[in-house]
Structure formats: structure tokens, C-alpha cells
Amino acid sequence: MAVGAMRAPWSSGPFFGQCDRAVPDAESAVQSAAATGNAPVLPDLLAQIPADEQIRSVGGDGAYDTKKRHAAIAERDAEAVIPVRRNGRTWKEDGPGPAARNETLRAIKRLGRTIWKKWGGYHRRRLVETKMHCFKLLGQRVMARTFDRQITELKVRAAILNRFSQSVHPTPSAWRSNIK
């Protein structure tokens, strides 16, 4: 997504969607350089979520299949739902991140990639992709000119989108309270 009225040297980063609910909320966002891919900012995204808040799983595509990303996910005691690249080999198990990744590799070899994706919940990331599409429908460009104001604008958009999602898809407890 282009930032500012003219092409700026940075673009909006990805969102970490909490997929434990039927409709994921944007939990954190990072403004990153346009040349930076999504995977390198994953530790920054995870750091924005309070340490006392449990993260069950973190999903991503093959670009997230790196030791640094798996270590960041394991540090938060979350499950990495990241497919191993097609030419992937086992890693030296020097921590919890590589151990979980090697287990994923063994499961993919044993079950096949398609079955692993269904079994492992990989297809839940489509909910986050859909949420990101809705986020982009709020505007393809950021209107603010300064970097700090651009970050604020993106956070406001995320809050609006989360609020809209909650009003359209209330939680089951909200349904019960409205039935009375």
C-alpha cells in the first residue's frame, strides 16, 4: 500500500490477527520500510501484544519459515502454523523453535502438505487475509504526512475495523444477553 500523496519510502506493515475468534481482530500493526518484507517485522508485532496475554498460534506463509521467526513464536509459547518450504530440511534442534519446525516438517512428509494444512489449521489465515482486504478498503493511501501521524492514522483505521467487526459479528455471550 502506498503511503502519502506521493510514493513514500515506507509502507504499512502486516497485522497480527487473533484467530481464536470467528472474526479476527487486528491486535498489532507495524509501519515498515517498503523494501522490508512482512516476515522480518513479526517479532515487533508479537512484542506489541502484552506478555500476560496468551497467543495460541501464529500463522504465516513460507516466508515466515526462518529460525528467527520460529524463535520469536516459541518465546511467546505459541504454536507456529507455518508450512515448511518445499525444499526444507531439518534444522539443528538448539531450542524450542527449531524443534517445533522439525515436527512440522515430519508431519508434512508423513501426511502430505494438503492434509497438514487442513489438520494444522493453516487455512484459518484466510480470515486474516480477508480482514487485511477490508482494512485496505478503508483507503489505499495514508493521508497524514509525518511518520508518527501515519502510524496513528493506521491504528485508528484498525480500531474502526475491529469495532465494525464486533458490531456485525458479536460474541456468543453478547447474543445470549440480547435474547433475554
Would you write up a description of this structure?
The chain is built from seven helices and four strands. By secondary structure, it is of the alpha+beta class. The chain has one domain (10-179). Strands 1-2 form a two-stranded antiparallel ribbon. Strands 3-4 form a two-stranded parallel sheet.
Low-confidence stretches: 1-21, 175-180
What is the count of DSSP helices, taking H or I runs of 4+ residues?
Answer: 7
Structural class of the helices, strands and pairings?
alpha+beta
Summed up, the domain count is 1
Give the overall form: globular
Biggest sheet, strands in spatial order? 1-2
How much helix, percentage-wise, in residues? 40-55%
Q: Strand share of the residues? A: 5-15%
- Look at the structure and give the mean pLDDT: 75
Distance between the termini: 45 Å
Short description:
With 180 residues, the chain is α+β, with helices and mostly antiparallel strands.
Strand and helix layout:
Layout: E1 10-18, E2 25-33, H1 42-48, E3 57-59, H2 67-75, E4 79-81, H3 96-111, H4 113-120, H5 125-137, H6 147-168, H7 172-179
Parallel strand pairs: 3-4
Antiparallel strand pairs: 1-2
Helix pairs in contact: 2-3, 3-4
Descriptive key words:
alpha+beta; 7 helices; single chain; two-stranded antiparallel sheet; 4 strands; 180 residues; 13% strand; disordered C terminus; two-stranded parallel ribbon; disordered N terminus
